[in-house]
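Notes taken during the Thursday session

The instructor put the following on the board and asked us to keep it in front of us for the whole hour. The protein is Shikimate dehydrogenase. We were told not to look anything up and to reason only from what is written here. First, the residues (253 in total):
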Amino acid sequence: MDIKENDKLFGLLGRNISYSFSRGYFAEKFDLLELEDHKYVNFDIEDINHLFPLIEKYKNQLKGFNVTIPYKKEVIPFLDKMDKKAAKIGAVNTIRVTKKGKLKGYNTDFYGFKKSLKPLVNPSHKKALILGTGGASKAVAFALKEMNIEVSFVSRKKEKENSFTYEELNESVINTYQIIINCTPLGTHPNVDVCPNIPYQYLGSSHILYDLIYNPSKTLFLKKGEDQGAIIKNGLEMLELQAEKAWRIWQKS
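Then, after some discussion, the predicted structure tokens were revealed:
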């Protein structure tokens, strides 16, 4: 991409992010708004310590960036300030560069997830299982707690009191937890033939299966849920909502 001296620069910070949703989304947005001096680029770095040289390189142009795997938690020590909700969540996916060049971290993932899940939820949905324990799972847990939904995590090793291993998921657990959210990368293109190892046979029409993955639009996790009559949703609307929230934050600069 040809970056000119007067361009306002936005980007995505992550590792192995050639597939990036954000770059295409914001390129289209800038075209629609006729913002020819706005550019969105992928900052694909091997190590979080490469962040400051990157900021120095574009210090007069960089206005904000999104953060994705694996840096949503790792980026926190590099920030000057954090929004209160991002601090409570313990993960950042949006950073605004202030007029004084300071970095302020926000979390718009929880907003996008909460707003996209809400229309599917009814009073019977009281408990949720979160598959995975990375940065995105923290935002999902925060959103669910705001909705008064009890949360438990599932991971390969038992990490906390309110957690399960995959081996512990049985018919009783699946019947108790009516919402199941995949916050792992399992099933992402091109590895579309894999899915989280849960007992899908115990799912039914009272369950919601939500996958943060958006490519493919229907992962094997969602297909298996749909086959059992569950309500299913992928992560595309969440991404769009969090991107719009990030755009509003950047416009404060």
